[in-house]
UniProtKB/TrEMBL annotation:
PANTHER family: IG(IMMUNOGLOBULIN) AND LRR(LEUCINE RICH REPEAT) DOMAINS, LEUCINE RICH REPEAT CONTAINING 53. InterPro entries: Leu-rich_rpt (IPR001611), Leu-rich_rpt_typical-subtyp (IPR003591), LRR_dom_sf (IPR032675). It holds the Pfam family LRR_1. The keyword Signal applies. Keywords: Leucine-rich repeat, Repeat, Signal. Residues 1-32 form the signal peptide. This is Uncharacterized protein. Gene3D superfamilies: Ribonuclease Inhibitor (3.80.10.10). It comes from the Eukaryota. It comes from Meganyctiphanes norvegica.
Amino acid sequence: MLKKMCTKMSISNNKMVHLLMLSQLMLSVAHCAIFKATGRPTHNPDAIWGQCEVQPLNPTWSVAPVGSSQVPEVVDTALTCSMVNLEEERVGHITTPAATRVASLSVACSEMYHYQRILSHQHLAGFINLQELTMEHCKIKHLKEDAFHSLGHLQSLVLRTRNFDWSEMKLKIDSAAFNSLKKLKSLDLSTNNIESIPLQTMCQMHSLITLNISYNVIQDMKNLGFSDIKNEIGENYCGSSLITLDISHNVISVVPSKIFSHFDKLQHLLLKHNEVINVEDDAFQGLSSLITLDISSNLLVALPQGIFEHIPNIRHLRAGNNSLSVLPPHLFQGLELLQELDLSYNNLHADWRLSSLFQGLSNLQMLDLSHNKITVINQQVFSSLTSVKVIHLNHNQLRSVPDNAFSSCIGLLHLDLSNNQLTSISDQSMSGLHNLKFLTLAHNNIDNVGISAFSNLNQLQDLNLNSNQLRSIPSAISLLKNLETIDLGENMITSLEDNPTKGLQNLYGLRLINNLISGHINKDSFVNIPSLKILNLAGNKISKIESNAFKNNSNLQAVRLDSNMLTSIDNLFGDLSQLKW
């Protein structure tokens, strides 16, 4: 069939081009080449205008209109074409009987040619049963009102000119360009340098579920092609069928009040990487089904009280990488279903700490407050977060962790407090964290860890204390019976005597690089650590290692001893059969 299809596509009265079959691979893929009217060239390879690959699909049957005498046809082919550029007479050439069998068409134009074209119905007139259409890098400057006139069965349309990289190339869209696409479910118009979409352009696509207008240059949200008036069909408003709307990477500065009031089915709204400085009151009114809201990477300095009251079903709220400094109390009130809250990379500081800020967020699983200017936390801030699994507080200005600060976070698995100004960890700082598995305290100024500081951390597997001011290995580590890896590198540890890691049966990774460890390493230094596989002692002042020092560590696979004061390592690794480096 594929061979016949390529042959059919080669027969045409069109004088501009011919399609010729190049090869057929394993009877499953056929390749066609597009040549100029003079036929296949013998000395001028540039005469090849493009080539296509034909692949079989599971057969389906076209649906004839009610009352029509049209005979249903088999639709069983995917066509992928690489072309120099888009021209009507050339793409139109593929409008042969074989084109009616094509369910999926992908056209990729050369990135080297920047000839702008107007897309009209002549380009695609023969593909009457097409369900999926993708056009990449074709420098289209204008979508005419009849561009998709014959594509009534189309369900997915991807049109990416990549004009985003060429500021002078804009895509203009006629208001009736998509009127024939009644069955379209997914529309991707990203990277087209679109400045605006005429009112009601999106209103005839009653089945549209996903709309991607990202990476364009739209400034006003009223220029997204919607309207406040009702559709001709039923009581549906324009765009009311949408589930996902991506407007990220544009230049929008304001989210107007009630702009989404008719999008009651919308579940995912992406507004990240714009220039939003103002989210007006009631901006999210009508979004009762919203699950994901991403307003990250904008220019927001404040959020109005009650801004989220219209989205009670929200699960994922991302507002990171803005300039937020103070959050109003009860900002997240009513968001009982919220699971992810990202406020990272803002300017939040001590003044924001209100015990009511996260009240009621009993289903929250991930809280990211990293890269802010927070200096103080207290127990009340996290008192409602009984389901939280991950808290990021790294890259702030915390000077201490108060007793019982996280005691209500009984399900916490991962706590990151790195890159702060902590000087000590008290006996009660980690109280209540019985399920914690990962604790990061790296890049602080910690010089003291309470003897019982880790007594509650029964499930801890990974502890990172690198880049602090520790002068010895904290004795509290001996209580961590499930510990698997510990990083104590870049401290001021001077000795391995009375090593608290002894007896940690599950420990397989120990990092002590760049400390001040001196003297000898003997057979007792790493005794009773049977699972130890990776040991890093590089960058210290060790002068001697006894020949039987690793006798009890038969599972060692990697040992680093470079940048020490060793003069000999003879007979050091003879019993380590699993050692790799």
